Amino acid sequence: MTTALPDLILEPLVRAALMEDLGTYGDVTTRSVIPEGTTYTAKLRARAEGVVSGMQIARLAFHLVDPSLEVRTLKEDGSEIAKGDTLMEIEGSAAAILSAERVALNFAGRLSGIATLTAACVAETKGTETRITCTRKTTPGLRMVEKQAVLHGGGFNHRFSLSDAILIKDNHIAAAGGIRPVLQAVKSNASHMIRVEIEVDTLAQLEEVLDEGGADVVLLDNMDTKTLLRAVEIANGRIVLEASGNMTLPRIAEVAATGVNYISMGALTHSATTLDLGLDF
């Protein structure tokens, strides 16, 4: 389990989604067909197994539409769930429940899909010290909650933004004139409070990074398993190694077995399938 974010941080995201869905005149269907004062108890259920994420956001969605709704969370974020499990019960105004339903399900299904894929990848690292981490390949505006979903699945977070850490990619290296010049520039200009990661494509570049110094982490980009094994031997524990580039679930176990410290996967957030959840009256 991971600590929940403050509701205050999440509320603007949920409020914006509700405003998008309710439009300029609210839920005209519900207002037209549901008698005023009708109450009900709805159940948010899993229609597939996985790992749940987004329950905190779903609760916020219901409460922003109607603070008087009684919301009981039965499966906390990060919990493993089976098909048919009831994740949440919502009691109160039927109109309010129906008006918040789609936003709550959109968030919960999307985030549970990310948590479920992350958990599957983490399971492939069993018996190793390798950690699964996400990237910045997130849905614009939803990075915070998608990265939280990765944590719910047992993964770890990479940097949140360009301002969090220095990550020197191949284009930075080319523009700066090479490995040594770019690392020398970092040593001259970067704050001592900022960690430095540099991407390499070859073992020769890795050796150059180790010789020059100035980096905390090396990103091993698009290397085959044999090359990753050799990279771990060369580094010999002197620097954190992150394997990246087209990482897929079937390959995780063999990459983790090489001894790299991290495997970063954009797929966790850009290719996760929404977990099927539904609201039953």
UniProtKB/TrEMBL annotation:
Belongs to the NadC/ModD family. Pathway: Cofactor biosynthesis; NAD(+) biosynthesis; nicotinate D-ribonucleotide from quinolinate: step 1/1. Keywords: Glycosyltransferase, Pyridine nucleotide biosynthesis, Transferase. Involved in the catabolism of quinolinic acid (QA). This is nicotinate-nucleotide diphosphorylase (carboxylating). It comes from Sulfitobacter indolifex HEL-45. NCBIfam families: nadC (TIGR00078). It comes from the Bacteria. The keyword Transferase applies. The keyword Chaperone does not apply. Residues 27-112 form the Quinolinate phosphoribosyl transferase N-terminal domain. Its EC number is 2.4.2.19. Residues 114-280 form the Quinolinate phosphoribosyl transferase C-terminal domain. Pfam families: QRPTase_C, QRPTase_N. InterPro entries: Aldolase_TIM, NadC, NadC/ModD, Nicotinate_pribotase-like_C, Quinolinate_PRibosylTase_N_sf, Quinolinate_PRibosylTrfase_C, Quinolinate_PRibosylTrfase_N.
